[in-house]
Each structure stands twice: as structure tokens, then as C-alpha cells.
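Forwarding the complex inputs:
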Amino acid sequence: MRIVSGGKTDVGRVRSNNEDCFRIVDSLNLFILSDGMGGEAHGEIASALAVETVVKHCLEAENNPAAPIYGETKAGWSDRTKRLSSAVYLANRKIFESAETYPEQRGMGATLTAAWIEDDKLSIAHVGDSRAYLLRTGGLQQLTSDHSLVAEQVRRGVLTPAEAERSDMQSVLLRALGAQQKIEVDAEEQPLFSGDILLLCSDGLTRMVTEPEIAGALQSEVDPERAAEKLINLANENGGADNVTAVVVRMESVSKSWFSWLRRGARKHAGSNGSAGGK
Amino acid sequence: MAKLSLMFENKLVKEVPVGGRPVGIGRSPDNDLPVDNLAVSNYHARVYFEAGRLVVEDLDSLNGTFVNDLRVERATLHDGDRIHIGKHHIKVDATGDAPVPVDTGRKTTAPRIDETMVLDTKVRREMLQQAAAMGESMQFAANRMKVPTLIVLSGKTDQKEYVLTNKLTVIGKSPMATVRMSGWFKPKMAAQINQRDDGYYIGPGDKTPNVNGVPIPGPVRLADGDLIEVSGVRLNFIFRE
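Prediction (whole assembly, two chains):
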């Protein structure tokens, strides 16, 4: 599988500063997105600190796999999933400690959604209301649960999804980095298949653009960076009420497609041994 | 005498004194201070005097009661405090009353916000941090935990039963599939089940699954007892108590 990716962030149409932050580490196939919160410039500090911490922790672990793992991990997880969960746990601590040290930063926090791909295995670690989606066989599969009050109310059957979208309480999070010394990190792993498209995005996208629109944009634009740009334009056309960030990762098949096998076959006049084309 | 002033977007809606009897606040019209908003529970909170202190108590409301933007179950009120309930807020006037004790019962000090929290993104964000800080102490009743389970009725799979714990459950021959099929000509990813906030949705993979005998080309929410058929495997989706 060949992995191509691109990302874009935008301040939106209403805000004056961008508290979103993302990073693509090509060498590791590591993708991180964070949406900061807090007065003055502190939201930006929080999301940048979150992203930096995750990148650093994962890079260090590449050189030193024995580096300590923070937070709780499940026995069945791969090393990558454990490391990614640990990185998010550590990011929470860094933000919390920074706010303890600098009183003016008190109250700052961030969401974090991180994806790490190794071969055909995807590891996801997540806190907050940014999201990871997988576009597969034409439909968006949501890979993360929002840690927001309204999402929890929907899960408990108190609100319908439509009521949640209209709620005034949409911005109330139940879990975010930096709020407490310890945090529960959601993490899990998924198999990936050629043709899958992974999307990480901030709530500035999901609150402005419907899922079918998102799926349509991802399918219509092959270049990941241009797809991210297209999503941001959609969010801004619909009002751009918040900062908006999208990271798009495409899983492309490496070997020849069935079509190219046919062509090659034709050229070589070799039609005898025909198992269907590569994966 | 202490009094409470119900405000909506800085406009006074109603004013009530607090005397010997608790002041009920909620959406139901029989409250002393009715608040007409869907985000407010029928009997949301009450305010009363206890040992000379003015106290607000949340009545297990859904969206919570916030004093100066910190979610509280119970808190002592001071003059000038603001109680936020849904989109409304209540100004607390405790002047001319019994001395207010120092102990507030609040764990941390919240930043004071002079504007209403209504519709203002910045204030919402600040409230959000408070809510996040309260985190796990949010008083939700423990959910009737039902366990979504797939039971294999026929066909070759690596287990007879699967508890759906992942956000996305893959059914197929892939070594990483949750419901792992075996046998010739089975697709790597026959179908998939996505856990959304409002339930479990089955969608097509390389094959179009049948649910209760009907082919489903797009995601369909599964109901308790549904029968799934895909690539020669029959599965029963149930919620286990």
C-alpha cells in the first residue's frame, strides 16, 4: 500500500486566530490534529504543545522502543497503538503542567486525534471532539466518539442526533487535554484496505459540512491536499464559524491494477496464466 | 430579603424573593421560577436557605446547573453570583441578608464572566473547559449497559460469538477482521459495522449484506435480533443484558 497525504488548516470566517494545529510526519506515517481552547493565545499554545508532544514521543520511541509507556494500555494492542496512546496521555500532562506553571494559561486545553499507519494497520488515539473518519466503499465510517456532552446524551438516548446538532451545548466537552492531571485516552486499531481514505478533522468542519458532502469532496479530489482544501472551502462557504482543519490520507494500491495487468498482458502476448490482477 | 432575577440575553424575565420556602427552578410551569427552554429539565434546580446560607442545588438535571460557569451539584451562593441554566442565567442578590459564610463548597474558583454565556463562543469555550475539568464527576446515571453481540448461526468463522467493542467492526477474511471468515473465495472485507452515537450501522464492504433477507446497499441501523447474511455467513445481532 502506498500512502499519500495532505492537510490544510484555516482560521475560518468568524474567528481572528487559529487554535487548530496539525502535523504530518511522512517518515512515520503519523498524522496528528489538535483543536485548542483557552483565552488570549492560549488555545494555540495548547494545541501546538499537544501536537509537539505526540510527535516527539513517537519519534523518540522509534530510536528507543523501550522508552516508558504512559497511561493505561490494553494487552492486545500493537506497540504502535500503545505508543500513540502513551503520547496522547503525555500531551495531556504537558498541557496541564504548563497551565500549572503559568497561571495566565490556566483553563487552556485541547482536543487531540492522532493516527499512525504501519503496513495495513491503523492505530487511532483520541480525546475530545475532533474526529477521524474512514471513507470506505462510498460511505464515511466514524472511527472516534466525540467526548462532548451532546454526543454522550445521544449515546444515552436522551437526545436524537438531530437535536444534538441544534443544541446550544455543543461546545461543552466532557474530556479534553489539559483539564486534569490524568486522562482516559480512547485508542483502537483497524485494518486498512487499498482505496481507503482516512480523514482527521476539527469540529469546525463537522459542524459546518454534512457527512455526505464530506464524502463527496473526498471522492471527487484525488490529491489529498486539494481534497483538504476543498473541505475547508465547503466549511467556509457554509459560514466558517470556527477554525477548520482537515488531514486527508489515501491508501493506494502499490502493485499494478487489474487494468494495467491487462495492458501488460496484451503487450507481451501472454494470456495463458491468468490469475486476476494484483492487489 | 434575597432575591433571584431570571435573565435572558441580559433582559429581566422574572424576579422572585427567596424566603422560608425553597424556590423551584425548571421548565415545568409549576416552578416558582419557570424557565421556558428545552435545555432545561422540568425540575432543574432549587434555591433555599440552609443554616443562614443561600444554597443552590441541582436536581439531577440533564444539562446541569452552573454557578459562575462551574458545574455544581450544590453550592453556596454569594451576592452577585450567576447561576446558568440552559441559555438563561439567574442573578443572585443576597444583599441585606444574613452574613454569607466563607466556605463555598466549591472545589475551585471559576473565572468570572460578566456577560451571559449565551451563544458567545468565547464564553462557551470557557465553560467547556470547566465542564471538561468536572469530567468524570458529571452526574449521569450509570447506563443500562447492554452489550452488542454478534452470534454466528452458520458459516465458517474464527469464533462463535463476538462482542462489538470497536468503533468499526470488519467482517471478512482479512487477518485483522474482527469477524474472521475462513474458506475459499471469501472477500477480505465483506461488510462492516460502524458504532455511531445513536446505534450500530451495518454497511457494505466488497459484498452487499442482507439484513432480515433484504439487501442493503448503504448503511442501515441494526435492531435487536436482526439477522445478517453475507458471503455464506449468517449472524444474529443482539443486545445482551
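Chain B touches chain A through 46 residues (CB under 8 Å).
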